[in-house]
Amino acid sequence: MATILKQDQIRQSGETPRAISFNTEDVHQRAQAYLDQVRLQGQEIIAQAQREAAQVRAAARAAGLQDAQKDLAKQIEEASLKLTEDTIRTATAACQQSLNSLSADTQQWLQEWRDVTVDMAIAMAEKLVRQSMAHGVEPLRVWLEEALMLMRDARDVHILVHPDDFTWAGRYLQQMAKHVPHAGSAEVLPDPTVSRGGCVVRCQHGQVDQQLETQLARLGEQLK
Questions:
Q1: CA 148, CA 142: separation in Å to the nearest integer?
Q2: How are beta strands 187-190 and 158-161 bridged, if at all?
Q3: Can you give the C-alpha Rg of the chain in angstroms?
Q4: pTM for this one?
Q5: Cα 143 from chain centre
Q6: Fewest Cβ atoms nearer than 10 Å: which of 181, 200, 203, 211?
């Protein structure tokens, strides 16, 4: 044990100074205990700080993960919408193109079908009329009357017919004069350029071509 002399004890006693004993080992133990306590508290503070830091990092990671998931979901949604819009736009364009192509093909087919049908009808009509003309000149009478009715207000009417039909045309004209007044003043002229069974009626204002070929051509134009 160490011996330490204290100054205040010397003054109070007024006596000759003497040594007073002091237990340094006890002081050392208490200091060591205090240091151990401080060290333990420091370790606890550090551990607590580490736990709090870990919680903060975990929360940050969770928040970051949640934000990342939200961003990813948003990106996926936007990409899906864009993909859907693009797909719809592409599909619509393809459908429209197909529809246009189908419409064009349909119109072309209808036109071709109409042309073929009209040509067949005209061919059949021509055959029937020519068969009728082979048994007589009745078509000439009908066409001549139609032409004169169209020119009922005309003057100087000339009727051109094939030479083989000249006699028949004159007879028909005499018959028509009974109910078509201006037929009596019309003049019949033979013309080899006019086809058999037909006629061309002319006046100062124009003409009406009643030849079979011309009528069939007009009919075809009207039907097509």
A1: 10
A2: parallel
A3: 63
A4: 0.47
A5: 54
A6: 181
Which CATH code of 3.30.2320.30, 3.90.1150.30, 2.40.50.140, 3.65.10.10 fits the domain covering 136-223?
A: 3.30.2320.30
Q: What 3-state class would DSSP assign to 201? A: strand
Q: What is the DSSP pairing of strand 158-161 with strand 199-203? A: antiparallel
Average pLDDT over residues 5-15: 48
Bridging pattern class, strands 187-190 and 206-209: unpaired
Token pair in block for residue 154: 């005309």
Residues 49 and 169: their CA atoms lie apart, in Å, by 129
**Residue length of the chain:** 224
The residue written with tokens 């009808």 in the block is 121
> Residue for token digits 């330490």?
4
And the tokens for 184?
Answer: 């009596």
Q: What percent of the chain has pLDDT over 90?
A: 14
